[in-house]
Structure formats: structure tokens, C-alpha cells
Amino acid sequence: MPYRRTPAVQARMDGRRDALLDAARALLADEGYAGCTVAAVAARARIATGSVYRHFPSKSVLAVELFRSVVTAEVDAVSAAARRPADPVAGVAAAAETFARRALRRPRLAYALLAEPVDTAVEAERLVFRRAFRDVFADRIAEGTASGRLPRQDPQLTAAALVGACAEALIGPLSGAADGSYTPGAHTPDHLVAFTLRALGVPHADHP
User: What's the pLDDT at 208?
Assistant: First the structure.
């Protein structure tokens, strides 16, 4: 008869897994992916290094789970911001502003998520989640075009271009977080919002 974990054993296993992910998130925010070695994560979680592999078969699997858990929270925050205003144009602006402000608030983490060299498995996840951000923007752009608030355009194409442009604009400033030369751009979110509105075709769009 196959062994089945008791609820108490399963709860203990789940708790250790959560502790490892919490430790990995903390390391990612402080040191990026370079600092998220299996040994470092285990030490941060106060778990034996060998025990990590009971929960994550490889460093790559851990890195993917880590990326998913962190970026899912970012997508949720941007999505909530986009849906808050009744006006779809204001919703797109809020999405761009939230994306930028959250990145600049935690620059080392944002750089790790957006641009730090990673293995192919995590790079594939970046593409998945870039499409998730695109869809957040596209939904509100589609509402804007349907209501006449925005000129006719391909919402998916415009959204993909906006997400790519916002990410690229942030990578430069964020890259300094990896070597200690980071200088936050206080007006960067405002500039990105103005750019977003102009790209959407909003007349005389200098600010939201």
C-alpha cells in the first residue's frame, strides 16, 4: 500500500516550502538571482541545504517558482490599479504609473525580474508574464477604443509596445541597483504616464 503523508506531515512540508520561498524572495530583493544559490536560500531559511531538494528538485525549479510568486503579485497590483478608474484611459495611465513606481521602490528586485541574466527556464517565464502585463493594458485600451475615448488601434499591439517601452525605459536606471550606483528618478513615473497617453493617441497628453 503506497505511503500517504498525514495532514501533520504535509503541513510541516508545506511550511518548509513556504519558508524557502520567503527566504528566496528576501535574497532576490537584496542580491538578485546571483545571490539566490541553494546554499544561501537554505541558510536564510535555517534549513539544511540537502533538504531544499526535497521541495525543489533543482535550482532552476526553485528560480522559476520564485519568479512566478513574485511577478504574480506585480501583475495583480498593476491589474488592480488598471481596473480602479471608471475611465479606461485613466486605467491605462494608472497601470503604467503603478508598474513604474513599484519597480523604482524596489530597484534590485525589479532589475532581477526584468533584465538580470537568468537561465532559460526563467527567461521563458519572463515572456509569459510580459504577456500577462500586456493583457492588463490591452483590456482597458480595448474599452477605450470601443467607447470612442481612444482612436481605433490594435489593443494587443499597442499594449505590447507600451509594456516593452516601459520596461526598457526602467532597465537603465534600475541597472544601477546591481552595482550600487542607482539613483531614483523621481519624475520617471510621470514621464512614463505622459508617454503612455501620447502613444495611445490622447490629444495634448502631458500628464494623466
Answer: 46
Convert the pLDDT of each residue in 95-107 to its tens digit.
999 999 999 999 9
The CATH H-level superfamily of 59-200 is Tetracycline Repressor, domain 2 (1.10.357.10)
Contact 65, 56 (CB under 8 A): yes
pLDDT at 118: 93
Report pTM.
0.87
Give the span between the Cα atoms of 162 and 17, in whole angstroms. Answer: 36
CATH of 1-57, one of 3.20.20.370, 3.40.640.10, 1.10.10.60, 3.50.50.60: 1.10.10.60
Do 68 and 122 meet the contact criterion of CB atoms below 8 Å apart?
A: no
